[in-house]
């Protein structure tokens, strides 16, 4: 009787050990998956950060060029070129500021951060990317007015004026339409995928997908 009781006790200890071992293995697997997925997300964000830095550097050069040309045009009385250049320059400055903000957001994301914190930062980055893209499209109409001069307007025929007005109105309508429709509700639309088929956008969405996989794995557990 005592031997049987001892065997039962021993078997109970073995079952507990097996359960503990299994739990440790599962936890180890989860930790590995979380680490790998987080590293993948961070790698994508590093690529996005490089694009942002290049965008800032090129943007600064573009702003300097527009400012110089706009000032030169204003001094010689070419008001249309000056206004067009300054409008594009103003929007470009906004984009540079937002890109700097994006770099700060990316720098704040660490592999040791919680999944919830990382997801919140990624969502903020994604939303901000949509917003600045909408704003950038507002500069489209000014690319149809920079070459206009008072002399050209005075000597232009009716046909040219109609074509010029139509082009400016069309670009204005298109820029406003894009501003109104670039949103998360249209992410599956074909035109949206074409506009946002670049590494800057896909890098963020892939990073978000990696973090989502972690959530799904934890929920499945």
UniProtKB/TrEMBL annotation:
Instruction: Please indicate which superkingdom the organism of origin belongs to.
Output: Bacteria
**Membrane-spanning parts:** 49-73, 79-100, 135-154, 160-180
Keywords (A to Z) from UniProt: Membrane, Transmembrane, Transmembrane helix
Q: What is this protein called?
A: Uncharacterized protein
Species in which this protein is naturally found: Panacibacter ginsenosidivorans
